[in-house]
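Help!! Second protein's tokens look totally different from the first
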Amino acid sequence: MKNLFYILFVTTIMIGCGANKGYDSVDADSFAKVIANEQVQIIDTRTPEEFNEGHIPNAININIDGEDFDAKIAELDKTRPVAVYCRGGRRSKEAADIIVGFGYDVTELSEGILSWEGEIEQ
């Protein structure tokens, strides 16, 4: 009985800490490898103003705080994976949770574009 409580406790902690979040959260080097695949749909979840200041090439801007976020996500090709990022990682994690719920295979840039050392497009 003691073991059962221990297993339930550990499982609860792991779920609460995001251990089974449904998407991959990776560093900038790993993210670069993911988006090197031309099939990947790259989503920048920042505001249009932030996006216009500089973004990862081939990214499309779908502002997580925009009223039409869910509708725009639903228009993506579900047969292709999605790579998502924001400025520092908070918004992209929130977006990744939502996008996974739509049935997409998602990779998230854990530290956001602030950690990105690759090319930036304006």
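Here's the second one for comparison:
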Amino acid sequence: MQSLKFVSADEAVSHIPSHCHVHLSSVASVPHCLIDALCRRADNGDVCDIHFHHFHTEGPAPYSDPRYEGIFFDQGFFVGPNVRANVNSGYADYLPVHLSETPLLYRSGAVKLGAALVNVSLPDSEGRVSLGTSVDCSPAAIECAEVVIGVVNPNVPFSYGELIPLSAFDYLVSDDTPLVTAGFVEPTPTELEIGRNCAALVEDGACLQMGIGSLPNALASQLGGHKNLGLHTEMFADGLLRLIKQGVINGAEKQIDRGKVAASFLLGSKEVYSFIDHNPDVLMRHIEYINDVRIISSNRKATAINSAIEVDLTGQICADSIGTRMFSGTGGQLDFVRGASLSEGGKSITVFASRTKKGRSKIVPLIHPGGGIVTPRADAHWIVTEYGAVDLYGKSLQERARLLISIAHPDDRESLEQAAFERFGPHFLRV
């Protein structure tokens, strides 16, 4: 280990100039000690006009706080709960991009990085560190940034896939802050019904992509009887870990990374993080590999399972915002939708409850004004609610409307039929 390169967090961030763009490693593995040190510089009036870029981050996000207006400006590639209010009030912002293209933002100079701040594991015997639970677009950031700072943290698991030599860092900081964890979220009865409807579409030998949360957990709970599933996904957590340990997910029929789990970032319990530590059966890869449509489609029966905020009667899928109010981001949804659609025997599936918690239909005549279309109607295939599953592929606009109304909440079907009649004319009701 090159101990001479270790400095304090305050010393490390003192080399970050004002008026620059800074990359943060994200999700569970945020370099909070460096963020805190930058805040101390800001409080002393020693830095200004810093733009932050990252996937969604967990834990405190002071860089988006109104008190740092003019000093820090967050421009994340995905909107998490810790910055959502400030994004929607204008104190932070969202940079729309497919996650597969985030490395290109850095390499092309569209976002010129002044610094990259990343959490890393303890080094191996060859002086290489791992990016642990959050690889995302950090390899490209390390490659492109003028100043690269690594936080060596024993709580970061040593994951295989992308190993970084210590020589890539200008400064190293030692820190033992625990990674952020997320507990298992129990599915609701409605979500379990959605999970059953979705699981019926998943074939033995399918290669899965899905996220985390109660709805993916509901699906995972219904897959226990499946065989030889694979996993090539942006992220996974405890629900899928159970299937891995049961041998349901074993990757035996994958064409790419056969027998291995492939992901780019994680958010789960300590058990998930321990599972990937020095585990050669798990590959934590950079996002341009995981989300590459060509890689995704190379696995037969690639099955992409994503969620939606709203779906209109023609199959347009809004998944990033509620009207003009940002909720999340484009993410990698379309990357996997396209990859699964091009896979031999693949399926793209969008799952959601028919109604919001406030009782408003999620199947709508028109997307709420200002809402973002993450998946265009031409890319929409299977749509699943608690009332069933329909395939929109190869269907006309009117056929799509009829199918979607059939899986809407029963109390919303009449009003949706009326909206379809007004849009498509009397022929819609006669057929």
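Reply: Different proteins will give different token patterns, so don't panic. The longest strand covers residues 113-120.
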